[in-house]
């Protein structure tokens, strides 16, 4: 294991205690914690079922939102925010501290004839695109080379940024503006026109980069050059399908040719997962029994090799009365942060807490969320707190990081003892509440575990 020592700066809050301090002798405490392999849902990772679902399992902390352009902008310049937010329960999920995976889609095949771009846009285009009825389903593939489509797309993205881009609720945005289901491919074998070259297709990427989506991270279906240049994450909508996933992993490892445009525009991104999330959904081409029973170990291995953080909206299900496969796959996703050791020293001149952080998961924690120490009295009231200046994103799987932080004198009484329990929490800026569970044995269900 690699080991790094970080000396954290402090934000101390001790006001109102009215304390006086006497001379104290040096004291010290040390504690070790055991790792817990218990599978629990956790913030910003795991399964992401549809946000429209009324009932979710208790381990779900992400929801999946997809919006078609026809839903978003039924009339030119008029966006139907209220219907989308109500149907996808934005207020509910925000209040419950859940975050969203988001995808904006221009072509979603179904079993009925329809189109997913607005009528007003379709009517304004000289050559709007192609209707289809194929093995994928029925729908309409827009003409992605059309200048007006690209221009209005940019305006739609800007409007979404102004409405939804500020509080981090849309934590992961899958850039799905191109192709069937937003997967960056069209069924040309069924007679649909080919996609334009990548230089034009990037017009469905750059509007997102130029808009203000604070707290969001972008993911692309393939490791395109622009994804590598911008440090994006990636998503695989065929998770669990061995042949397809291995091909996807080969793109990530070696780059190569984008078969939709016959261009060498795929870049090697083998370390992308270290700084940006890997997502997607379980394949619908294989039965849930095959994925979670017959080929469970293969499914798990593919998810781990991908360094997957989330899967949805196609998520694992109960199979033959058992949730075993669901739970094992959940345990293979995302981060598993924990504290293995903690020490506390106190003297007249200085007081310090040292925490040894570890990550037993498959991926980092991808957000720079605040880490806070709180002093809690016997009545459960927080009487002092401080923020540790550390970056959780730096704790990679199988690495160890030691964080040393000075404590203010107000945490101690005249005898050098803590005035209460010292707790730790990782704060979600959307809710300003503790949100992350650490894999510490006996405290794995707590978002504010006790250190001392």
From TrEMBL:
It comes from Streptococcus loxodontisalivarius. Pfam families: DUF4832 (PF16116). Residues 253-411 form the DUF4832 domain. It comes from the Bacteria. This is DUF4832 domain-containing protein.
């Amino acid at each position: 294991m690699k080991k790094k020592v970080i000396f954290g700066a402090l934000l101390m809050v001790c006001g109102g205690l009215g304390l006086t301090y006497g001379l104290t002798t040096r004291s010290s405490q040390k504690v070790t914690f055991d790792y817990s392999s218990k599978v629990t849902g956790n913030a910003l990772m795991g399964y992401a079922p549809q946000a429209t679902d009324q009932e979710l399992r208790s381990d779900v902390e992400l929801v999946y939102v997809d919006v078609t352009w026809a839903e978003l902008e039924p009339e030119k310049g008029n966006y139907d925010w209220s219907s989308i937010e109500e149907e996808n329960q934005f207020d509910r999920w925000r209040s419950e501290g859940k975050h969203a995976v988001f995808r904006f889609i221009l072509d979603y095949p179904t079993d009925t004839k329809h189109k997913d771009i607005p009528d007003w846009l379709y009517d304004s285009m000289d050559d709007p695109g192609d209707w289809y009825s194929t093995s994928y389903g029925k729908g309409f593939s827009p003409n992605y080379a059309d200048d007006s489509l690209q221009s209005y797309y940019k305006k739609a993205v800007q409007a979404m940024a102004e409405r939804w881009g500020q509080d981090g609720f849309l934590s992961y945005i899958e850039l799905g503006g191109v192709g069937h289901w937003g997967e960056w491919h069209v069924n040309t074998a069924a007679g649909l026109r080919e996609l334009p070259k990548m230089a034009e297709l990037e017009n469905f990427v750059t509007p997102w980069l130029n808009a203000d989506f604070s707290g969001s991270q972008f993911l692309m279906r393939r490791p395109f050059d622009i994804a590598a240049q911008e440090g994006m994450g990636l998503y695989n909508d065929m998770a669990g399908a061995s042949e397809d996933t291995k091909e996807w992993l080969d793109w990530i490892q070696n780059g190569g040719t984008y078969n939709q445009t016959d261009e060498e525009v795929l870049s090697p991104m083998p370390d992308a997962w270290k700084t940006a999330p890997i997502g997607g959904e379980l394949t619908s081409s294989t039965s849930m029994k095959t994925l979670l029973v017959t080929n469970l170990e293969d499914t798990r291995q593919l998810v781990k090799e991908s360094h997957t953080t989330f899967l949805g909206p196609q998520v694992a299900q109960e199979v033959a009365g058992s949730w075993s496969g669901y739970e094992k796959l959940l345990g293979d996703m995302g981060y598993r942060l924990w504290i293995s050791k903690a020490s506390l020293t106190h003297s007249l001149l200085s007081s310090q807490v040292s925490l040894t952080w570890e990550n037993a998961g498959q991926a980092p924690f991808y957000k720079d969320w605040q880490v806070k120490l709180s002093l809690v009295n016997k009545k459960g009231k927080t009487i002092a707190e401080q923020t540790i200046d550390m970056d959780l994103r730096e704790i990679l799987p199988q690495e160890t990081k030691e964080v040393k932080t000075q404590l203010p004198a107000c945490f101690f009484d005249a005898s050098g003892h803590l005035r209460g329990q010292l707790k730790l929490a990782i704060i979600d800026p959307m809710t300003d509440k503790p949100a992350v569970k650490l894999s510490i044995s006996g405290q794995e269900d707590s978002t504010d575990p006790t250190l001392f």
